Amino acid sequence: MNAIKKRNLSELLSGIKDAPSTKITGICDDSRNIKKGDVFFAFQGDISHGMDYLEIVIEAGAAAIIYELPYANITENNFNIPIIGVDSLNKYKGEIANRWHNNISKKLKIIGITGTNGKTTVAALIQSCLHSLGHICGYIGTLGLGIYELEDSNLTTPSNFKLHQVLADFYRQGAKFVVMEVSSHSIAQNRIAGIPFDATMFTNLTQDHLDYHKNMRSYGEIKSKLFTEIESKIKIINCIDDFGKKLSKEIQKDVIEITNITVPREYKGLFLNIEKSTANGLGYSVSIQSSWGHKEFNLPLIGAFNVENASQVIALLLSYNFNFHKIISAIKSLTPPKGRMQLVSLTSNKRLPKVYIDFAHTPEALKLALIALRSHYDSNIWCVFGCGGDRDQGKRKLMGHIAEKYSDYVVITSDNPRAEDPKNIINDILEGVEEDVEIFEDRAKAIQYAIQTASDRDIILIAGKGHEGYQLISDSRITFVDNDHADRALKNRLNISND
Description:
10-stranded mixed beta sheet; 16 helices; 6-stranded mixed beta sheet
């Protein structure tokens, strides 16, 4: 039974704007999701205003519309429902969402993670460890929304009202913790308004999203707001990253620093220092020293960056006073999140190359993924990748250069070209490439070529899309899963060799 009953519009907006006592059954800030009886909140977006979809929401049965001023194309008395303009409506949306959900979000320990790379992995590892430690934890991020089974989400961080709804649903399902990825877009657009973060975490800052943020300074400033303008009891900062080091100095209070240098004895803050990490098989032997003591353990994840990711997870769990030994036991049983340095299952066969799927879609992420494979394998490395259309064009040339520098064989293909001509994107990538490379505009053919051509001992990285189950080409969303295409190509290669 739904715990939310009919509400009074005037009570919902009390102290914000005078409104009639209209009965409403829901709140919505996305015209695509409006239901009969909802009050629709129309905010000014980056490109359009919510009021541009007025006819859609009225036809869907909205009980009232509250819109952000200024908006010139409306006469409030033309319709049979309340349509009310509010100055600076955006700043009230968190308060409104919390009122609607009876402040349920304040009953949860909400952990927010931001950074260019690593958000998904850190969030997924936290959820996995908390479940291992006997605590129910919800997840919100790139992989979807959910506690045990994830449902798809179009955004890393959902719209504000959707976000509060998800938190309320998690609480009713018994969750005490929620871990969520906080994208730079969501901070800039105030999608996290009204979220009472218990802990916030920073992974790193490298080039991405400059089509939106314009420059790295602006991008960094937006990320910093999660720590400098939003209250949280616990702040975990990866100070191995240069920007993280500066951010920690700026915050100072309540910071747990992740480092890879010896911390002076006189240091009074909280820390976790990665003393040593050595690649071993499909993981790392790790030694850490921290404010909570010293531990040595095996981490079953590929990539030095995962040592940093796991260290942040350990620091968070220690800050919640979980038993150190039990934390390490949970860490030792981790598996990679979907599409994050994920080994395609058939590659356990010695007659086949090993194939990894990774979401690496930024220059730094691609570089680290390739370095990670090089540190674990003494073999030729293949890199199959493309770049997204209608996004930061400046990183394409950089990624071409990195792929050529850190792998032995490069196959350039399409990612999500969107409205751009895939050939133009590939040409941008080629500006960073000096040697001959293979080019397949068709991503399936690129994957098939690499797997059919590589030797049994070679390692193949298929980068850029990770967990995604689709390709965005022009106006179409086409089903496409890198893992499935790799699996099919491996089976074909095995069948051919058996004939």
